[in-house]
Amino acid sequence: MNSNLVKRAIFGALYVGLILAAILLRGHWLYMGVFGLLAFLGNWEWSNLVSTHRIFPLRRISDAAATVYLFWSTHEIADKGIEASLLLVPYAGYLLYILVRSIYSEREAMPTDLAKVIFGQIYVGGFLSMANIFYTDEGTSILLLAIFVCIWVNDTGAYLAGSTLGKHKLFPSVSPKKSWEGFFGGLVASAVAAGLLLGWEQAYYGVLISIIATWGDLFESMIKRSVGVKDSGSILPGHGGILDRIDSLLFVLPFMAFLQWIIYTYTTLHLA
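The structure assignment produced for this chain is given below.
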């Protein structure tokens, strides 16, 4: 058997196993450890991808650590309520720090680097933190599980359909290997997964997740293509980097959180 396929299978199973354990076992420190690691490595790879702080590794570490802190503090707010919002004060101090820090950077690179750093905090830390909304409420924790499963099944369905039937390119300028056949294969697979996990009346969640996940994947592909790299990192042999694994998730989580807010608001007003 091809050694690359073995590595891909082993590290893929390890990644999936850790995510499932973090969600299903409901252990606070396990959840924080797994998702905190995703936040740290995701931001680290983002900094590397967009070439910020190439000669200041400590800044890269502090930015990645701030992403972890943002994830942890938003978890506490989601779990304990608005009274825990004071935990965001140190993070606000960090944002002030990077603004001041930028004053002492190279003037030509400063605006661009500052924008990249702040966007990295929003893209990785902010969007990943949306998982806390689902995790801290036992009533919606199944939806967090469904989001992950639908994304994984979507990727698998898209790969199988695209590799066997793919003829019409989806976005050749961004991701030459993606096809419309693969897209619809992933969409159907995701809808079936959502139906099995949430009930067939909510299979539409799988359709929405598939569409948004594809956008997330294409967004990161666009970034990688613009800087001339294939993967965001190499920490997962056969899979690339952490950002390569969570790029779809970072788009799906805020979308699903917003959708749940709309449903909750409509239901509340309708029943009032």
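Interim note for the steering committee: The first strand starts at residue 169 and ends at 171. The CA atoms of residues 52 and 112 lie 9 Å apart.
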